[in-house]
Amino acid sequence: MTSALSGLRVLDLSRVLAGPWASQTLADMGAEVIKIERPGAGDDTRGWGPPYAKDVTGNDTSEAAYYLSANRGKKSLTIDMTKPEGQEILHRLAAECDVVIENFKVGGLAKYRLDYASLSEINPKIVYCSITGFGQDGPYKDRPGYDFMIQAMGGLMSITGAPDQEPGGQPMKVGVAVADIFTGLYATIGILAALRHRDATGEGQHVDLALLDVQTAILANQAMNFLTTGKAPGRLGNAHPNIVPYEAFPTADGYIILAVGNDSQFRSFCNVAGIGHLPDDARYATNRSRVANRETLVPQIRQAMVMKSTDDWIAILETANVPCGPINTLDRVFDNPQVKHRDTVRYLDHPTAGKVPTVANPIKFSKTPIAGETAPPMLGQHSDEILRKVADLSDAQIAKLREAGII
């Protein structure tokens, strides 16, 4: 079967995470992604380790795990874009591509004639996606933006972590770079929408993605909690601002997540937990009342939960149709039978490591399945292939460029 995006070609000028996450997603769905990297250095994340992938003898390769997480399915071409000869090659490639992705600072590519205005003259159908910290306009447009600071500026850290009055209470970032990853996913959505418009009208366009915009957008219900009340929500640790009980509870041997989403589930939970009288108390009969009276309700639930082990509670609560789950470490995540059944971890052939693991794209298509994934490329692994096939250069021309340090 052909993949959903077979025949689409992407010129990927991005590096680190947000841009590469977008281009990896497009590659997973069948697009040919040409990753442009600096000769001799490549994407910064190649060196963001340890850990690194191991070669067949057990020694570290040059491929950091961080780099491997965001560059599956691509082809690597090394070009010095600061040189006119390098820019000319990129212009040739842009003329043959459908999409360009870049995450340089605003205006940073104009001096190389690789900005949207320049490339759209060469290819009016190009969909050009720019990813920056703060967008292409506004008072902050020239500032650099990094995930950690965006999580802070965008309000996420103000609602993440334990309250100040609890031990260790302080604002916390999320354990993965969610501002970057969500921006990569929104970029993918924007690119696909722009391609739909291009296919209908024949014209490309500039897609402008900002980490701060995305971080603000994904505040979701918390943003609306503020906008409807004018009161900024605070940190509740693992508790939910709008649903009770919906948090982590200690058990006899650890913790369990209890996610009671409606009044019926609350009654079922109370019946099996030995606190069946609580749903008949007006203070706890509805979710609205439970949210208002969480300070008196939650201690009673905690007292019941510590009487049994996590595994015992899971068995009991699943039988009663009460949503719950353990707090798994990553070794338990990847050993989970459901995760295994969904073919979440795959092993891809690699030139020096033999095989490298990857976490599969979670999209399951019935007609155009994700297939044929390849390992993240070695630096410059596909340079000659791309220059011959796409840029239409001869072997002699390629050799001359290599001798001059352009590729």
Automatic annotation (TrEMBL):
Keywords: Transferase. The keyword Ribosomal protein does not apply. The keyword Disulfide bond does not apply. It comes from the Bacteria. One of its GO terms (molecular function) is CoA-transferase activity. This is CoA-transferase.
